[in-house]
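SAMPLE LOG
Freezer: B-3
Tube label: C17
Construct: single chain, 212 aa
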Amino acid sequence: MKIDFVSDVSCPWCAVGLKSLEMALARVGPDVPVDLHFQPFELNPQMGPEGQDMVEHITQKYGSSAADIARSQEALRARGAALGFQFDFQRRGRIYNTFDAHRLLHWAEAEGKQRALKNALFAAYFTEGRDPSNHDVLVSVAGSVGLDEARARQILASDEFAAAVRERERFYTGLGIHAVPSVIINDRHLIQGGQPPEVFEKALRQLAAGDR
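STRUCTURE (predicted):
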């Protein structure tokens, strides 16, 4: 079963969605063999290199009040904790550009490390409060999952994989994907949002049975 997980490194509900999907995959086990791919989506493609204060950004983009943001953060903390993922919003104070992170994820797929890198990038940003646009941070995170740091730095210093990432982004927005996470199963079935594990598990079992 092919799964395309369309998401952004700076999307908290994408972290929730991935942990839910991974829990569902663990539950179905070898009954449902899965080929999982991570596809790029940028929530803020025009974000400058300096980033933006998170509360300021969310207020401007969505019109949320401080109380709205606090409630959303508490909901995310609870959902994350239930899935074994820690959100630390005291550390995560800014929103950053994520294009270079997506370039490394594109490279990591060919190296067999894409899922590990995706999880490590979520942890670096949402748990540790590190800047996912900073090249030193990206190289360090890549190295932590067994990727070659010198090669990662070489990629980041160039425009390597930029065209491929842009093409993937256009492809999925062309399909009508404008919100993430978006999970596409076998190129036909779409599940959107940070769904609980039960939703993913039910869909995986039903679709696997239907394919058989």
